[in-house]
Design a protein that fits this description.
- The protein has about 475 residues and is α/β, with parallel strands linked by helices.
- It has 2 domains: about 290 residues, Zn peptidases (Aminopeptidase); about 120 residues, Alpha-Beta Plaits.
- The protein contains 12 helices and 19 strands.
- The chain has a 6-stranded mixed sheet. A 4-stranded antiparallel sheet has the order 12-13-11-14, covered by helices on one side.
- Helix 1 crosses helix 3 and helix 10 crosses helix 12.
- It binds ligand BES and manganese (II) ion (2 copies).
- One manganese (II) ion binds next to loops.
Length: about 475
């Protein structure tokens, strides 16, 4: 396939490719908040329409116990290999809304230092509507130019941002039609616009909620203060005790199953270009912080973590109210690495919080969603095809790296379908995923659409 076939088609359809994505971004498909249920379902219908228009067959909005999966396929020849594209049409909540420079569901194009040719600002622009939609447009391109070399199945879900709790059942139920050779996912980052990279692993996740109860009601903090436990004080102390002075996690047994990399593996991981000064500048911090004895890239790539995602209790309104609160709450996540298991770690966490809490309070620990860590071998035809495709479109060989985030279903793809996932991400860590002012570079969007057909080409050749 001539490169010009691809670039000509993209150039001729540039505006439309962009406008279609902007339309998708206007639907607030926030899976975490039931208030948006209608919009999440509407987004599924919109994705279905777009797949049909692009030439996908048998497209359906397939129900689950939660939000539906949009499924469709194009079988050009059952003897040819099959690529299964996975992505998600749900997005994170936009809060805190007041920190957005433009409304999160009214996409605008603005130039930034990193994206001088413009970026789309909207919730979900990068994670994952923009990256998912590149696959729909790349598919359209291959259909319209007669260059689709193999079969394709699309599986676009609506619950990734809340842990993909119902996708596992759906996959098991639909195993028969999910026969394929590789899973292709664009939902991760590359190192920089001019430094393509492919993730060779993702962290797992164990997400917990803690409720600490002291006295049976809010109290006057003068009348009772000093004589009963303050659950907010106690919760803070419990949380602080989870790390030692070297930022190691203190929960007994937490590191038992952590796979330590060899020095050679660590050295290789640290070869990836990473600029700590750029990192600090982007975040406006004097100094990075993390587990003693590991580099920043190791801290996010191969080491587990424990972080408070939210904490509340007592009076948080205007002015001052003297109160000794009855309850305190925190949402705490742990990122996991091979070979940790989310159920085991959740239990260790629960045991720790219940055992170290003083008698003066009651502690309730409730696990939320979890997901297992994964490693992706660079030796598979899928990884090689991704690497060749990026080499061709960027003019540079992509660097293998470890992604710090989680995509909970990837471990299940391997377990239930026996398939490797290729983490073919085109976003940047600086694109403010999950933060106010999320954006996705126009360069990245079009580069993705340009690179994906090359993946198909190389994958078909490598699996002949
Ligand atoms: N796309 C991200 C995961 C990601 C981002 C991986 C960047 C690597 C680099 C995904 O949508 C996500 O946010 N996952 C959640 C999972 C959770 C909600 C179960 C995460 O990592 O917090
Ligand atoms: Mn995502
Ligand atoms: Mn996300």
């Amino acid at each position: 396939m001539e490169r010009s076939v691809i670039t000509n088609y993209i150039n001729a359809n540039k505006e439309r490719f962009l406008n279609e994505l902007l339309d998708l971004l206007r639907i607030p498909s926030v899976s975490a908040d039931p208030k948006y249920a209608g919009d999440v379902n509407k987004t599924a219908e919109a994705v279905k329409q777009r797949l049909i228009e692009a030439g996908v067959d048998n497209v359906e909005v397939s129900p689950t116990k939660g939000y539906p999966v949009v499924y469709g396929e194009k079988i050009i020849d059952p003897k040819k290999p099959t690529v299964i594209v996975y992505g998600h049409y749900d997005v994170q909540p936009a809060d805190p809304i007041n920190l957005w420079h433009s409304p999160p569901f009214e996409p605008v194009i603005k130039k930034t230092e990193v994206h001088p040719d413009g970026a789309i600002f909207a919730r979900g622009a990068c994670d994952d509507k923009g990256q998912m939609y590149m696959h729909v447009k790349a598919f359209e391109l291959m259909m319209k130019t007669g260059t689709l070399p193999c079969n394709v199945k699309f599986m676009i879900e609506g619950e990734e941002e809340v842990g993909s709790a119902n996708l596992g059942d759906w996959i098991i139920k639909n195993k028969a039609r999910l026969k394929g050779d590789v899973i292709l996912i664009s939902d991760t980052s590359m190192i920089a616009k001019d430094i393509p990279s492919i993730d060779t692993g993702l962290r797992g996740l164990a997400y917990m909620e803690v409720e600490v109860t002291g006295p049976n009601r809010d109290l006057h903090s003068g009348v009772y203060g000093g004589a009963v436990a303050n659950p907010v004080n106690v919760l803070c102390k419990l949380i602080a005790s989870c790390h030692d002075e070297n930022n190691h996690i203190t929960i007994p047994g937490f590191y038992d199953e952590v796979l330590e990399l060899t020095n050679a593996e660590r050295a290789e991981l640290n070869l990836a270009p990473f600029d700590i000064n750029e990192f600090k500048k982007d975040l406006n911090i004097e100094q990075e912080q993390g587990e003693e004895g590991y580099t920043t890239m190791e801290r996010t790539g191969i080491r587990p973590t424990l972080d408070v995602n939210g904490i509340w209790g007592g009076y948080i309104g205007e002015g001052a109210k003297t109160v000794l609160p009855s309850k305190a709450f925190a949402k705490i996540s742990m990122r996991l690495v091979p070979n940790q298991n989310s159920d085991v770690i959740s239990k260790l966490f629960q045991k720790y919080f219940e055992s170290v809490a003083p008698k003066s309070v009651k502690v309730k620990v409730t696990p939320h969603h979890g997901g297992e860590p994964v490693v992706v071998t660079p030796d598979s035809p899928g990884f090689k095809a991704a690497s060749l495709a990026m080499t061709e479109s960027f003019g540079k060989k992509p660097v293998p790296t470890r992604g710090g985030g989680s995509i909970p279903i990837v471990a299940l793809f391997k377990k239930e379908l026996g398939l490797d996932s290729i983490l073919f991400g085109f976003g940047l860590d600086t694109d403010a995923l999950h933060s106010p002012n999320e954006h996705y570079g126009l360069f990245n969007y079009y580069k993705g659409i340009e690179t994906i057909p090359l993946f198909y080409k190389h994958f078909s050749e490598l699996t002949k």
